[in-house]
Structure formats: structure tokens, C-alpha cells
Amino acid sequence: MAQATQAYKRSFAGSVGSGVKSIMGGDGAKYYMLVHKVSSQYHKAGESQAIIVNQIEIGRDAKCQVRFDESFTTVSRCHAAIVRDKDNWKLVQLSHTNSTYLNGHKVQNEWYLQNGDEIQLSTNGPKLGFIIPEGKNATVGSLGLTKRLSLFRQQALRPYKTAIWSVVAALVVVCVVGGLLLSKTNQALKSEQEYRQMAEAQWAEEKAQMQETMDELAKVNSDMSAKLDKSKKDIAKMKGDINKINDASAPKVSSSVNNAAIDKCLPYVYFITVVGFDIKLPDGTGGFAECGKDVPGWSGTGFLLSDGRFVTARHVVEGWNYWQDASGVNEFSQELNAIVNNGGSVVAHFVCASSSGSKFNCTSKQFVCNRSHDQFGTTEDGYKLSLAACDGTDYAYMKTNLSGGLPFDSNLSKTLERGVKLTVLGFPFGLGANSPKDISPLYGSAIVASQGVHDGVILTTDTNYESGNSGGPVFCSNSNGDLITIGLVSAGAGRNLGMIVPISVIR
Questions:
Q1: By the 8 A CB rule, do 295 and 289 touch?
Q2: Are 144 and 291 found together in one domain?
Q3: 251: nearest Cα among 476, 461, 485, 414
Q4: How far apart are alpha carbons 413 and 140 in whole angstroms?
Q5: What CA–CA distances, in Å, run from 165 to 151, 160, 169, 304?
Q6: pLDDT classification of 141: cutoffs 50, 70, 90
Q7: Are residues 208 and 338 in the same domain?
Q8: pLDDT band for position 387 (50/70/90)?
């Protein structure tokens, strides 16, 4: 029977707020299943869809958590909603043109739902079964952590990207160096709508790209290997030409680099990849989440200094503190950040390997990080979030008993002149890490754009490094052609600008 209740109104708390509580364990909260009785582009007949948030919308619109494709012409874009009302669930009619039926009866406004009810969208339209699990599987906590994280992204974040951008706007410290980068960013993103559309487009592309990535990387790796072989031959020829030059007035810091000097450094450059996370929720539950289909990971570069310190970028070690940048929000990193800042903990596990055959395991807890520039904020539901700055604090290091290592010069890293050529070694897009027994860092380069250090970083132009070089060593060469470590890769900006954290800040 129809019953009078409060009118339906989409709310941030009913979607994102209840979704976050479900991730944290749900405090015994129950969920329900929607069983699809017809096949569509998004669901097969017989498929069950677990719903863990307090309100969802059903229809053809991309923001709907239960979505039907455009072939269902009698299903409105926002056709109906299911909303929690205290301990009950109710079906709410939203469409002004197409009816909704519950057990064959037309819904005039809203009806309460019972276990086993059948929902139909329009006459002869698609049907859904409403099922409330019972027994030990009746609570949200019975779902695995990985499953809860996946459902949270699908159901809580999809309709509220605009609200999330509002939170981001209150927290984001724009990672710029001086007014130049800020100006470039503001010109590129002319309006909030354009910025939001960019993030939504990125999220849509990400799903398709995940299945294509391995094939694409294999092709790119083959192409890069061929180019690298050609570069080695070119460098060898250049070496012969450079050795003929005898300029007594050459500066102390030279822009020339030879391949033999690079080869000496390769054994101390490591490929870093995250293999999983120890996650502890605020209620004390949790476990180890291995990186795979539902738990994304990342990779980067690290290096060993001659004093035994192993160095990389902080955003390689604690990626959850860098969940937002100019390209948008990384939702998985944002979820980990919420866990860390609301009474839980996250520890990343890494495998580090070099071309010398050296290999070791480590965790994020072993690294020393500088968190003094982190910014903190609170969502309207009271959940805390933090965001790290892309500046001179983007480094992490730990002490080791490993022998050898790269030479470095802290004083030189603070006084580099404009125009000095820099050499970069690392693993862009994971390239060069072909197998556990085939580790070969790729060569990159950059040029110092402005003398000295600005806002804690060295600015570069003609920057030739990519994602995956993060945390890798940056060198200049002395008058003897030897490579001297002066910093580590932090970030790129646009096509040419780059930011290097000077080695002098790592103490």
C-alpha cells in the first residue's frame, strides 16, 4: 500500500556519505540486491547487483547507478529511485512520462519495498527483482573490502562528481611553480565545467584503456628498444667527436654526457612496483589487498646513493597523499586517503630491482617522508582528507646496508646555472622493466630553465621524461665526464616544463 513519507531529494549524505560508511564496515548496516531479469548492454539476465548506498537512481542517464542502454526507449533517463527510509526501503517514481510498476501495480508516487518484490519500468519494460540477503550475509560487512571499494566507486561517486569537485576545490593546493605554471593552468581550464568534463572523460577512457594497456606497452617497448639501440650508436659516435674537443676554458659543469658514464650508474637505479596494501579500517577489520583487476597499483623509480640511502619520490611511496592533480582525481587513492585520515591505516608493499640483479622488498613504513606541507580538510559528512604538495617535499628515503651507490653533490644541486644539460634515468610507463632478469633503465634529459632553486625545486625545460620516471636520479656531468647526482624527478608540467627535487633537501 502507498504510504506518505518525506519527498525524495538526492543528497550527498545518502550517496557518498553512506558509501564511505559501507567501506568502513557499515556498523551492521544492511544492503540489498537487484536481480536483472532481462539482458542489457550493462547487465546480463540473472545478474545480481549489490547496492550498498542509501539512495540510487534507475534509468538511462550515465549518472544512474542502475543503468539501461538507449535501446530501452520506454525507460526514462531518470526513471525511478530506491531510497532508504529509516529501516525500510521505498521505490520512488521520478519520470514524468513513463510509469513504474511494483508487483504489477502502478506507482503513483512512492511505495515501500518488501523482500521478493518485482519492479518493472514502464509497460512491457525491463524488470528487476528486489532481494534482501539474510543470515550471515545480511550486512555490508559480509562483503569483502575489495568488493566494497569497487561498489563505492560505482554507486557513491558516479552521481556526485560535482560534489566531489567542491571538496577538491577546498583542499587542492595547485602544484605550480611561480605565476607561470598557475597562468598556464588557468588558461587551459577556462571554466569549472570544462575542468569537470575533462575528469569525467578521463574516467570513461580509463576503463577501456585498462584492457588495452598490456598490448600497447608491448608495442611501445619494442619501438623504444629499437630507438634506444639507435641512440646508443649515435651516442657512441658523439663520444668520438666530443673527445676531439679540447677547450681549456670549458666550465666546471659541462653539458656533455658519454655512454660509458651512464653505464656506471645503471646498477644503482631500481624499478619500484607496488604489489599490494595492508589495509586496516577504523573498526579494526581489514587485511592484505593484492594489486590486480580491482586493486590498482603503480610503479616508479628509485636509486641508491653512495652513503647507503635509498631514495625515491614521496608520491611513489605514499600515492594516496597525491590523489588529485591537474589531470583530475584518482578515486582509489582518494579512498585510501580517507581510510588513513579517519582512524585506519594503509601500508604499501614494494619490490625493488636493478640491472645488477640486486632485488629487495620494502614497505612504505620504512621510508622517511616530509609531511610538513600537507593540507587538510573535512567533507560535509565529517570525513577528513589530506593532500600533499608537489614541491621540495616530494621525496622519501630509507637507510640500507647495500654497498656501492651513486656519487652526489648537495651544494651543486642548489647553484646550477641556466642551460646546464641534465641526464635522467628511469622507467617511464614501466618500460625497461622487461622481466625480473631484464632490468634496463631508459635515458632521458632536461635543461635547467632558471638558475638555483625556486619554491624548493629545480625548474627544467626541454624536459624529456614521463610518468614512471618519478623518483629517478637526475645527473649533471663534471669536466671529466663523470655523472654527479643532483636531484630526483618529481613532476612534469605540460610538454616541456619539469620539476626536480634537489638532493640538498634530503637530510
A1: yes
A2: no
A3: 476
A4: 53
A5: 20, 9, 6, 39
A6: confident
A7: yes
A8: very high
Contact assessment for residue 14 and residue 53, using Cβ atoms and an 8 Å cutoff: yes
Shared domain check, 207 and 143: no
> Measuring CA to CA, which residue among 67, 48, 83 is closest to residue 126?
67
- Same domain, yes or no, for 325 and 428? yes
| Residues forming a β-bridge with 179 | none
Minimum mean pLDDT range among 165-169, 364-368, 425-429: 165-169
Structural domain harbouring 103:
12-148
pTM (two decimals): 0.59
CB 227 within 8 A of CB 235: no
Shared-domain flag, residues 325 and 432: yes
Return the exposure string of 391-424: e unless at least 16 CB atoms fall within 10 Å of the residue's CB, then b: bbbbbbbbebebeebbebbeebbbebeeebbbbb
**CA–CA distance, 240 with 258 (Å, rounded to integer):** 10
Is pLDDT at 333 greater than 80 in this prediction? yes
Task: Tell me, yes or no, whether 7 lies in a domain.
Answer: no
> In this structure, what are the phi and psi dihedrals at residue 444, rounded to the nearest 5 degrees?
-140, 175
Number of H helices, E strands in the chain: 10, 32
Residue 1 covered by a domain: no
**Whether residue 450 sits in one domain with residue 307:** yes
The β-bridge partners of 417 are: none
User: Shortest CA distance to 49 belongs to which of 129, 145, 160, 110?
Assistant: 129
Rounded (5°) CA angle 478-483-485? 105
State the amino acid at position 396 in one-letter form.
A
Q: Tell me, what CATH number does 39's domain have?
A: 2.60.200.20
- Report d(CA 340, CA 383) in Å as an integer: 11
Domain-located, residue 158: no
Cβ(116)–Cβ(89) under 8 Å? no
Mean pLDDT of 190-196: 56
